[in-house]
């Protein structure tokens, strides 16, 4: 029984998603596929660091662009931030999160592709 519990614990540690070494920022956009007009929720997870000053969130397609910036207070900032894209029309989007450091330089970035498909009623 102890062996089974130990193996289960090891398995849980290896499959639990987390920020790995070198990953300063991760992103999760939901829903991954939705009907237009879509309200995309962008959640970023950021490793605490004294040099973190902001995170820029961008949702972009060939005909649409929206961005927002969230100020971070270094290692005192929350680990998770959330942003809302508003009403995104039908398209394939690249959603990016840029981690901004001291002096405005980009420290890290991540991206995720999202599909917004036509809704009903003639869209």
Could you outline the blueprint of secondary structure elements for this entry?
Blueprint: H1 2-15, E1 25-30, E2 33-35, E3 38-46, E4 52-60, E5 65-71, E6 80-88, E7 91-101, E8 106-117
Short account of what is shown:
The chain contains one helix and eight strands; from the N terminus they run H-E-E-E-E-E-E-E-E.
How would you describe the shape? elongated
Radius of gyration in whole Å, from Cα? 18 Å
Helix share bin:
10-25%
**Mean pLDDT across all amino acids:** 85
Strand order in the sheet with the most strands: 2-8-7-4-5
Query: H/E element string?
Result: HEEEEEEEE
The separation of the N and C termini measures 58 Å
Number of helices: 1
Low-confidence stretches: 3-21
SS elements, strand count: 8
Give the DSSP E fraction (strand runs of 2 or more residues). Answer: over 45%
Structural class: mainly beta
Q: How would you characterize the largest beta sheet? A: 5 strands, mixed
